[in-house]
Amino acid sequence: MAHLTKEDVEIATRAADHFTRLYYSAYDSPTRMDDLPISILERKPFEGSQGVRDLISKMPKTQHEVQSFDCHPIPGSQPPSLLITVSGNVTHGGGPSANPPSTHKKNIEGHPRVFSQTFMLVPDTTSPTKVGEVAKYYIIADTMRFVG
């Protein structure tokens, strides 16, 4: 089994910090369909990348507030794959003030919800990197759930 070096951990932490900031700012952007590169295998339930694009385009705008993230480099490749866990709050829509006056108080639309999201990133071995530069990664798995 390959061992991780101190440099592996430092690079992974920088990559996770960079990824987290970039991902959520792109996701919250009004141009998120252009900012988020989406390519997935043809599998259900969304019927491929076009299905995911259709799903995301129908979602209301979002505002993520990341509270914390944790990164675990996974040995086996150089640079190592990354398991990133993110938690925070997300508001869908324009916030409570954007809801019509008739909206029930318990309606979650427009109110912050606590979320937890886990990403598995693998290094893009086809993308050249310079010494000391954070490797380029792509998302191989992404799970998200509301916890509050």
Please summarize what this structure is:
Its main location: cytoplasm. This protein is of the alpha+beta class. It contains three helices and four strands.
- Number of helical segments? 3
CATH architecture classification: Roll
Q: Using only CA atoms, what is the Rg?
A: 18 Å
Strands across the major sheet, in which order? 1-2-3-4
List low-confidence stretches.
39-44
Function: Has a role in nuclear-cytoplasmic transport of proteins and mRNAs.
Protein name: NTF2-related export protein
InterPro entries: NTF2, NTF2-like_dom_sf, NTF2_dom, Nuclear_transport_factor_2_euk
Main location: cytoplasm
Characterise the protein shown here:
The protein is elongated, with a radius of gyration of 18 Å. It has a single domain, classed as Nuclear Transport Factor 2, Chain: A (Roll), CATH 3.10.450.50. The chain is of the alpha+beta class and 148 residues long. The longest helix is centred in the first third of the chain and has 23 residues. About 4% of the residues have low confidence.
